[in-house]
Amino acid sequence: MVSFFQSSNRYKNARELIKLSHILALLLFGILSANGQGQWTPPLPIDSSRYPFPLGGPIAVSGSDEIFSTFNSSDGNKIYVVHSSDQGSSWKQYAYVGNELSRVPRDILVDQTGTVWLLWISVDDDFSPSFVNISKSIDSGKTFSLVFRSLSYSDGFLYQKLAVDGQNSIYLLWDDFQFKLTRFRNGDIQQRYDAPISTDSFQIGQHLSLVVSRDFIVHIAWEGISSDSTGYHDFIFYTQSIDTGNSFIGRTLVDTADNPSLTTDSLGRIYVSFRKLSSTNPLGLFIAKSSNGGISFDESIYISDTIYSWSGICTDSEGGIDVLWNAPYGARYSRSSDGGATFSPFVHVGYLGMLDVKAGTNGYLYAIGANDSGVVFTRKNVILSVSDIDKKPREFRLSANYPNPFNSSTTIRISLAKSEYVDVKVFDILGKEVSSLIVGRLDSGEHSLTWNAQGLASGVYFARLAVGRKLAVTQKMILSR
Predict the structure, then answer these.
(1) pLDDT digits 0-9 by tens, 343-385
(2) Partners of 472 in the beta sheet?
């Protein structure tokens, strides 16, 4: 390994280094997949050479699984729209060019007619004033025409969201001097209606979430910020409109947290994922559910520790609730198949910073992310066949840990063919026991154990699984501080 990195001194050209880092990312992802860390496909590069270090953008999926996504050019002056008609196996790339100094994609969607709607912000001069823009394409993203531009707003805009309903009305959630929802009836920009959303004294945060369900109810979750002598405080609020966005009455406090993402299911249940710091858990991912139309939310479910700013939640074509979030060493994924009562142990998607996730047909999820070499794309079929669901591990197994190397904590997975009394311990390279992870009975199936190596020196460690007289030992677990 040392000689490999020493040999990288040969690469004097920056472009070659970019390609090398991308190859390393793909190799790492392949290793993770081979070690049973999930069934996500290896990331497919959308752009890794022509436009170094682009910023990833949102993703949209049509009813026929056509995929659209966006990203910036390296100079920030162009928005590139990419399109795939074969579930991400290949891409066509188009440039959307304007005259503004800078432009950033905010959201993208496809309506029932196949029209692509692109929401973006532009900066005219010296980063002020700013404009919110909507462009549309009727030729699968090849060309776009500007159909809506806001009045200039010298303070700039933070985040905006788009949604579409079953009659192709387009919804824009934004802060245009006032937090509000704008509806363009049947996709006609001239038929516009604005509905204010009450925020009282709360400042609108950077993260908003907007969903229009099949029954034409508009669901909104947003970040509210207040301050006092003790500092700033983040709250997540929810509100809805039952008259296609004409009015919003009241709001519900979901939790004291930030960075919300929202979805609904076919039974009208509402799910909000968010980042939260609590007295009993470290900063982690939580999900709250409402079964009464948002009047109240159940106590938040703790999903995982250690989350960065982003999480995305959606409902797949089989009714499962899927959530992805950013964590150290890459993205994580979990799913609920029982209406949010329980969520599966998370799996690692890859060494990527996830940016958006959308559900397609036939159980597919499409997610987009970015690493140091550009924008990448990944997909996963989350639906298992009946035979897969009934299949149990044939023997006990101790899988490689992830991440590896790791900084402070790592996850170890074990598989059991039947309920067993297990003993999982960690040893240093001299064979000295340094930690006992579990001693007791576990049910059959897959189990994830987290080892926190706080207080231990950097070096090589091993995990050992003992089931009766049978033993299994992991490969080297490398603690690197």
Answers:
(1) 988 877 766 677 788 988 777 888 887 654 456 666 666 543 3
(2) 465
For residues 380 and 417, state if they share a domain.
no
103 is written with which tokens?
Answer: 């432009």
Q: Which tens digit of pLDDT belongs to each residue from 392-429?
A: 555 677 877 777 778 888 888 888 878 888 888 898 88
pLDDT at position 207, please? 86
User: Tokens 């039947």 sit at which residue?
Assistant: 418
For residue 187, the cross-strand partners are: none
Angle at 448 between CA 444 and CA 454, to 5 degrees: 145
Q: Which of 69, 59, 107, 65 is nearest to 381 (CA)?
A: 65
Token representation of residue 6: 């020493």
The backbone torsions φ and ψ at residue 185, rounded to the nearest 5 degrees and listed phi first, read: -65, 130
Last residue of a domain, one of 375, 390, 405: 390
Backbone angles phi, psi at 458, to 5 degrees: -60, 145
The DSSP line for 41-68 is: PPPEEEESSSSSSPPEEEEEE-TT--EE
- Looking at the domain assignment, is residue 198 inside a domain? yes
Q: Are residues 415 and 351 in the same domain?
A: no
Whether residue 461 contacts residue 477, with contact meaning beta carbons closer than 8 Å, is answered with yes
Point out the residues of the chain with pLDDT beneath 50. Answer: 1-38, 47-54, 372-373, 383-391
Considering the domain architecture, whether residues 260 and 331 belong to the same structural domain is answered as yes
Q: 């995990």: which residue's tokens?
A: 463
* Contact of 350 with 330, CB cutoff 8 Å: yes
DSSP readout, 418-435?
Answer: S-EEEEEEEEETTS-EEE
Phi/psi at 435 (5° precision)? -160, 145
- How is residue 181 written in tokens? 């929802």
- CA 434, CA 461: separation in Å to the nearest integer? 9
Q: Is 94 helix (H, G, I), strand (E, B) or coil?
A: strand
> What's residue 478's pLDDT?
84
Which residue, chain included where needed, has tokens 């290949």? 90
CA distances from 236 to 134, 199, 262, 275, 292 (A): 27, 11, 11, 10, 18
pTM: 0.71
| Same domain, yes or no: 403 and 384 | no
**Residues 348/37, Cβ–Cβ less than 8 Å:** yes
Residue with tokens 């994609």: 105
Instruction: Indicate if 429 and 327 belong to the same structural domain.
Output: no
Q: Are residues 425 and 293 in the same domain?
A: no
Residue 411 belongs to domain spanning: 397-479
